[in-house]
Design a protein that fits this description.
Helix content: 40-55%
Largest sheet: 6 strands, antiparallel
Oligomer: single chain
Radius of gyration: 22 Å
Distance between the termini: 23 Å
CATH class of the largest domain: Mainly Beta
Structural class: alpha+beta
Length: 336
């Protein structure tokens, strides 16, 4: 992957700059509208780059207020979260009645399906990372509990995530081989999840108490997928809750605990089968490391979920890697 060409207001007639900029921003990221302090002299530049399933967009512009489509009373896609990382200058971001002040290195999480606006009083540059809600939920159990919580980029896990994201973005100036894009995206999301670990249960003043428990349970499941004894009953015992209460927690996830465990195992299997660095790993080892009690059981379940056997899936991905335009044709029945 390499960066797309920069889009700039330079050379655009002053009367047409704002419409040009807003149209470009909508195409690059999401439905939004900028309201510059000085429309006639407004200047902006954006660069887009995709790494696997993640989209990075760097914005540099003069003072303005940027409103999401929802804030404007229009419809917008609700399928994504945005990580907003401040590169230079300062911004004030508002969503869900909360305002966070972002300084260079700081970042926050926004929901594209809710009203949101961003204000900056001087020239700034920001880096926005767009990720699907389904993908982020695989790393952070309940992202909705973390909306608009500023993470400092000056110390601790937040600084590590902030620095690494900026380095990843800088690396897109050169080509990133397609076969490693998924790994790079995985690292980015793991770092962001680590940065939020310390505040995952911070909102104890609302029903987020159960959300906090759900976050811990989802992380526990992720860490124990290798265990063939991982079941809803063993999960409930580990957290000293009843299976019935566990079931109630998962009703908010729109799937049962058993279904979640199976889905995560299949997702991990697909990642392993598609990873060129694991091309020599046997199917027996993959199935064993994902908690399946036998290779036949793994093969049967994988076929039911993905529509083909594990070996056929691995071969299909390997063939598609030689023809990037065909990668999306690899079948999958697993919900993501």
């Amino acid at each position: 992957m390499s960066r797309s060409e920069a889009v700039s207001t330079d050379g655009i007639a002053p009367a047409k700059r704002l419409a040009f900029w807003n149209d470009a921003a909508c195409q690059a990221l999401a439905a939004m509208s900028a309201e510059p302090r000085s429309p006639q002299t407004f200047s902006g530049r954006m660069i887009r780059g995709d790494i696997g399933e993640l989209r990075f967009v760097e914005f540099s512009s003069d003072a303005a207020i940027v409103r999401s489509a929802h804030a404007l009373g229009t419809r917008a896609s609700e399928a994504h979260y945005f990580f907003l990382l401040q590169l230079t200058g300062e911004s004030r971001s508002m969503q869900e009645g909360r305002e966070v002040h972002l300084r260079p290195g700081d970042f926050t999480l926004c929901d594209s399906g809710r009203p949101h606006h961003l204000r900056f009083d001087d020239h700034v540059s920001t880096l926005t990372l767009r990720v699907s809600k389904a993908s982020l939920a695989r790393y952070i159990g309940s992202p909705e509990t973390l909306i608009h919580r500023a993470v400092s980029g000056r110390s601790g896990p937040g600084a590590l995530a902030s620095n690494m994201l900026r380095q990843m973005w800088k690396a897109t100036e050169d080509m990133i081989p397609p076969e490693v894009e998924a790994r790079v995206a995985h690292v980015a999301l793991e770092l962001l999840a680590c940065a939020y670990t310390g505040i995952a249960g911070a909102r104890a003043d609302e029903p987020a108490l159960s959300s906090s428990l759900r976050v811990r349970i989802l992380h526990y499941i992720n860490d124990h997928l290798h265990d063939p004894e991982l079941t809803p009953s063993t999960v409930a015992r580990s957290f000293r809750i009843t299976p019935r209460y566990l079931h109630r927690l998962f009703l908010q996830e729109s799937e049962t605990a058993a279904r979640h465990i199976l889905r995560r195992r299949i997702e991990r299997a697909r990642q392993a089968l598609a990873d060129p660095l694991l091309a020599g790993m046997s199917l027996t080892r993959i199935s064993g490391e994902l908690g399946f009690k036998s290779l036949p059981h793994f093969s049967h379940v994988f076929h039911d979920e993905c529509g083909m056997s594990p070996s056929a899936y691995r071969n299909a991905v390997r063939s598609a890697s030689n023809f990037p335009e065909e990668q999306k044709s690899v079948p999958s029945r697993t919900n993501s």
